[in-house]
Amino acid sequence: MAHNHNPPKLMSLDFDLTLHEARRRVEVIAAIGSLWDPITAIRSEETAYALLYSNLDPDQQRTYDNLVQAGVLPQRDSRP
User: Going residue by residue through the chain (80 aa), what tens digit of pLDDT does each one get?
Assistant: First the structure.
């Protein structure tokens, strides 16, 4: 049995995903609906984070500070 020692030719394929990405974005916006207000959503999220990290006991505050220092949680402008 003869073995072919020639490696197979590699083929390069290029895909332009621009159209797919545009279509995906349109579908996301359609799924969200026209009543979605991104500014209100961001403000609500910030309020939720402020509540989540408020009234921490000293151990919780130390853990929170360590997580911020380690880059796990974002640095806030003011301490909750």
Answer: 566 678 888 888 888 889 999 999 999 989 988 888 989 999 999 999 889 989 999 999 999 999 999 999 988 765 44
Q: Which residue type, as a one-letter code, is found at position 52?
A: L
Cα separations in angstroms, 37 against 9, 16, 53: 52, 31, 25
Distance (Å, whole) CA 76 – CA 65: 11
Contact indicator for 80, 50 with CB cutoff of 8 Å: yes
48: left (phi over 0), alpha (psi -120 to 50) or beta: alpha
pTM of the model: 0.48
